[in-house]
Each structure stands twice: as structure tokens, then as C-alpha cells.
Amino acid sequence: MSNMRITIDTKAKTLTVENGDGSRVLDLYSTEAFESITEQWLRVGWNQKYSYSFCWMGRPIVQFPEDIVRIQEVIYSLKPDVIIETGIAHGGSLILYASLCEAMHKGRVIGVDIEIRPHNRAALEGHELFHRISLIEGDSIASETVGRVKSLVRAGDSVLVVLDSCHSREHVLCELEAYCDLITPGSYIVATDGIMKDLCDVPMGDPGWETDNPAAAAVEFAKRHPEFEIVQPSWPFNESQLSKNITHWPSAYLRLQFPPGE
After folding, report:
1. By the 8 A CB rule, do 51 and 63 touch?
2. 171: closest CA among 113, 120, 214?
């Protein structure tokens, strides 16, 4: 990321941005100033592991809060029959999805992880929403694992897939190819944590992330598969002047377009 200096003057109510392109003075309370502050706040917050400080119904959910709300909006709008997540960690996201399914009286959740640690499995299996969840242990791109996942999807099921396992460009690209044929028109396959591309220079980041990240995989996949488009799902409610997600998931939502004429 190019060098940038931000100066906030609360008395003058201005925000000054200085970079290689020169200097701009913004109204501190403008949308543009908010977006400039947010961009840096996201980077600092990621480095401080801000998203590691939340639970959903008793299980740690390692997600940025706005991403939780936005995926909820998508799930409630689509009401999918099946939600598949690769990379389950402590299982908080599985419980989030299962709680939405329970509230909607529809849907089930499939969680895939290369290793489900015994204490996490025990906590999930003992949770009151586990009847909505199936767990599969295995490499998410291994043919055997993919086959087990697909065997749990019935003909006619509407499907949403969230990819949150290994975040290397190559692995995510393989996951996109492995699970894209499950997506139903109008639904999404979501390549999470593309924010890595903006974290290559933070203390806990990695210079290689500039090109080796899920967002790069999503862009490459969309080029290969024009039936999928990268979109930000529309906000069902917005009385603000804002239009951009504050997110760890840029370029994440790949929507399968409806065939022409539908």
C-alpha cells in the first residue's frame, strides 16, 4: 500500500489526506472522510484481532461484525435450503447460519474442515442448534470430501457456499471450481477474507498477500466463468449517505446469474 498521511483537525472539522498524488482537505463529516478513516481503521483493527472478540450463541465467531450482518441479510433474502461453509474453526459461523435456518423454519448447514478439533466438535454436537448441522472432516478440495458434501445436497435444493478455509489464491480457486456447480441461480459462492490484499504491509501481515489472496482468486474465477459476477449484495435498508460495505470480504460475493429469459 502506498504511503499516506491522514491528519484530523477536530476544531476545523477537516481531514487532510496526503499521498503521492498530493494533498486533499475533506470535510471531516463527509462520506469521503468516513471512507478514508475506515480504510485505516480496518487495517489496524485486523492487526489487533478485533474480529477475534465476538461469539454467536456461545461459540466464537471469527468474523468482522458488519460481515455477519451482511451475510445475514443475504441468507434471509435467499432462504437457501443448504448453506455450506469450508473452514469452521470454533464453529461460530455454523451456529449463526443454523440459528437463521431455525428462525426461518428452513435450511440446514454443512461444515467442512481439514481438522475438527475434539473440543470444538464436542461443543458443536452439544449445541441446541446442532440438529441443523452436518460436519465433514477432510481437505475441502479433496475429491472424497467434495463428494461427501455433494451427497448431502438433494436435487432441487437451493445452495449458498461460503469459503473460509485456507486463504491462498490457489486453494480458494480450487474451492471455487469444486463447489461452483452447487450454486443455484441468484445465489452466491463467497470467497471470504479478500482484505488480505490490503494487509501486506501491516505488522501481522505478509508481503505475499498482495497477490496471494482470496480476492485475486475470485477475480480469476469470474474471468473463467462469466456466468458468475462479483457483486456487492444490495442493502435491503439504507437511510445513510454510504454505499460501500465496511468489510473483510472485498470482491467476495460471486453470484450465479439467471439464464437469459428468466
Report:
1. yes
2. 214
Look at residues 103, 252, 244, 241 and name the one whose alpha carbon lies nearest to residue 175.
Answer: 252
- In the chain the first and final C-alpha atoms are separated, in Å, by 42
Scored b (16 or more CB within 10 A) or e, 212-243 reads bbbbbbbeebbeeeeebebebbeeeeeeeeee
2 — pLDDT class (breaks 50, 70, 90): low
Query: Hunting for cell 432462504 — which residue is that?
Result: 79
If phi > 0 it is left, if psi is from -120 to 50 it is alpha, else beta; for residue 223 that is: alpha
Average pLDDT of the residues in 199-228:
97
Write out pLDDT tens, residues 31-60: 999 999 999 999 999 999 999 999 999 999
pTM: 0.96
Nearest C-alpha neighbor of 107 from the set 87, 128, 135, 78: 78
Burial of 5 (0-12, 13-18, 19+ CB in 10 A): exposed
Integer Rg of the chain from CA? 20
